[in-house]
Design goal:
The protein is α+β, with helices and mostly antiparallel strands and about 400 residues long.
């Protein structure tokens, strides 16, 4: 298939016209044509990681699935790892969809904007159809309705130390002052309902803002006018690796048990009772540990010497203990970093390992091994980890 034909098969974001007008270069992401960068990815990175900026990302490719009906909570609670019954109005939680073997089908964020039991599931683009199918098969079994809102809505994200100040200036302080993980639906002066959740994809403070696709341009322009800088997915990929956020289909997939993703603390409840795959997940937790898990590796290498995805991770004496899943150069740390799936015994921080090979374009192809050591995640602890405050919402 030609490159033109491949591009024709990709889905377009609602704001593609704006991205092209801004001079964006594009990249394929999970079947969508998304902005890679706007001409200066280094500056985009710096505005998000710096103390005085905020980046604006178009995340409209993410899945947005509404679930409603009297039995919404009951049905969903039997399908995911977290306790939906404990989710309060105006709050969100992360969770996983496991199969009967406890393996990971999708990561989701569950939002409850109002007093009703109606919920919104936010998923990665690659797993949207899988999540929808897992829910839709129950619609004939009770009062449980499912709607895929992805095509008719858009989702923007403001990430950075000044995210609250930007969102407050554009949409009003009532949004900017919500707590982390909190959800609110408001009608700003720019028009159109906006559902906001305070959330991070980067280890920096942030807000995800969903609206109707027809209102997305006005929302984008308001955020830019308030000081947000457009940023692309190339920058977002560096930021999410630094933040230690696993990407489905890249770092984890259906071959992994849920607990191998390293999101157990926030995504799994061990008191909620039965759900699909619960017995296996609980047995691993209470009787032992996973055989392997996602971990961080610090690499003392230059950018061009980064290991390839899939490169083997070994001990000094050549024992195979894992593989690289993502790698990038961290501008903040000044060296290479990687996410890797490692055997349990080699997870303690400080463990010294070697990575079997560098990329083919390495300036030193004769060097077949790269020194590395295990580190705690996230690699970079940005403004999301600072003490909560009003964050300049009233600026």
């Amino acid at each position: 298939m030609s490159e033109a034909a491949e591009r024709a098969e990709m889905r377009s974001l609602p704001l593609e016209g704006i991205h092209r007008r801004l001079g964006a270069s594009f990249v394929e992401r999970d079947g969508w044509l998304a902005p890679a960068h706007y001409g200066d990815p280094v500056a985009e990175y710096e505005v998000v990681r710096g103390s005085g900026g905020a980046g604006l990302f178009d995340l409209s490719a993410r899945g947005r699935i509404a679930v409603s009906g009297a039995e919404t909570v009951q049905f969903l609670n039997g399908l995911i790892t977290n306790d939906v019954k404990a989710l309060q109005p105006g709050a969100s939680m992360t969770a996983a969809f496991p199969n009967v073997q406890g393996r990971l089908l999708a990561h989701v964020r569950v939002l409850r904007p109002g007093q009703e039991s109606d919920l919104i599931l936010d998923s990665e683009p690659i797993s949207r159809e899988r999540v929808f199918a897992a829910l839709e098969r129950f619609t004939l079994a009770g009062d449980f309705r499912v709607s895929d809102l992805t095509a008719e809505t858009a989702q923007l994200s403001v990430q950075g130390a000044r995210a609250a100040a930007v969102v407050g200036a554009a949409l009003g302080p009532q949004i900017a002052r919500i707590g982390r993980g909190s959800v609110v639906a408001v009608q700003p002066s720019i028009g159109g309902l906006v559902t906001a959740v305070r959330a991070t994809h980067t280890a920096e403070d942030g807000f995800d803002l969903a609206c109707q696709a027809a209102d997305a341009a006005a929302l984008w322009e308001a955020l830019v006018a308030a000081g947000a800088r457009p940023c692309g997915h190339e920058t977002l990929e560096v930021l999410r690796i630094e933040a230690g956020v696993p990407r489905y289909g890249v770092d984890v997939d259906e071959t992994n048990v849920v607990l191998e993703a390293g999101t157990e603390d926030e995504a799994v409840s061990y008191t909620k009772g039965c759900y699909v795959g619960q017995e296996i997940i609980a047995r691993i937790h209470w009787r032992g540990h996973v055989a392997k898990r996602l971990a961080g590796l610090s690499l003392a290498v230059a950018e061009m010497e980064l290991p390839a995805v899939g490169a083997e991770v070994k001990t000094a004496d050549g024992k195979k203990i894992g593989r690289i899943t993502s790698a990038t150069h961290s501008p903040t740390l000044g060296h290479g970093i990687a996410l890797a799936m490692l055997k349990y015994d080699f997870l303690p921080p400080g463990t010294e390992v070697v990575v079997a090979s560098a990329k083919n374009d390495s300036p030193a192809p004769d060097e077949s091994e790269l020194a590395a050591h295990v580190v705690e995640l996230p690699f970079v602890r940005g403004s999301w980890y600072a003490a909560p405050s009003d964050d300049g919402a009233g600026d």
